[in-house]
C-alpha cells in the first residue's frame, strides 16, 4: 500500500510540474520569462550590423526630399537624430535593430523627446553629402531654429566602428544624444563642435501656391536650388553681370521663371566672367553670353544649351523650355557636375599677377 501511494505522489508531482511554465532553459534558449536574449553579437559589415529588419516606426527611413520637413516641420524645437549608412545590400537598407533600441529611450508615451530617422546613402548621395559625411555608419544630431536653419553635430564612423558589441553602440549613441540634447540652440550657435545646418529643398507647394524659383547661383544654394533640389531640371542663365543683378536679361528671366513656376524647373543666373571655371564644363567661355543651360542632375548628368543669337527674349526661351518639357530636346552627357567656387576663393588676373610677382 505504501509503494502505491509513493507512485501516485510522484505522478501528481510530475503532472503539476508539467503544467507550470519552465523557468529556465539552456543558455542558447530563452530567458526566464520566455523572451529572446539580447543579441550582443559582433557588429559586422560596413553599416555596423546589429541586425534589424525593414521599416522602423521609431526610426523610419528618410529620403532627401523628406529631409526638410523632418528637420524643420512639426515641432521644430524637438531635436532630430539621423543614422547614415551606406545602403549597400539588404542589411544597409534596413534600419539596424540597435538604432531602434536607442530611439525607444526617447519616447515618453505618445510624445518624443528626440525624433529619429535612418538614411541609407542615396545615389546621388543627398543627405550624407549635405552633412559632409563620407564614412559610414555615422549619426547626426540636428537642432532646428524653426526657419530652415540651425546647428548639427556628427558622431563619426570611426567612433562607432571601434566598438564590438551592439550594447556598446547603443550606449555610445545615447551618451552622444544626451550630451547634445542638454545644450540649447543658443549655447551651440557659436560652438566649434557644432556646424551650421545645411540647406535642404523645401517641399513642393500646391500649384496655386507655387513660388517663383529664380535666384543668383551661389555656393550656398547650388545643391538646393539647382543640383539636387525638387526641380528635375535646373535652368542656368549665363549672363554678363559684373554689377550683380543689374543685367540686361534679368527682367526676361524673372518673367520666364514666373511663367514656368508650376513646372519641374528651377531658374538661376551666373555672371560668366567671374564664374569661368563653373561654365567651362558646358563648353562655354565668358564671351558666350547670354546662354541658357538646362541641366538634368542625378545618376546621369546631362545638359543642353540655348543660344538666342542676340538678346534673350521670353518667346525664344519658352520655345526652348517647351521642347525640354515635351521630351524633344537633345541632351549631352557629362561625368560630373561643376562645383561653384565661393567668391572669397576667386582671384582676378591682376591678383594672380601680383602673387606671381
TrEMBL record:
Entries under InterPro entries matching the protein: ER_Co-chaperone, Thioredox_PDIA6_C, Thioredoxin-like_sf
Superkingdom classification of source: Eukaryota
Segments of skewed composition (Gly residues): 46-55
Biased composition range(s): Basic residues: 1-13, 24-33
Region feature Disordered, mapped onto this chain: 1-56
The PDIA6-like C-terminal thioredoxin-like domain, residue ranges: 218-328
Coiled coil feature spans: none
Protein name: PDIA6-like C-terminal thioredoxin-like domain-containing protein
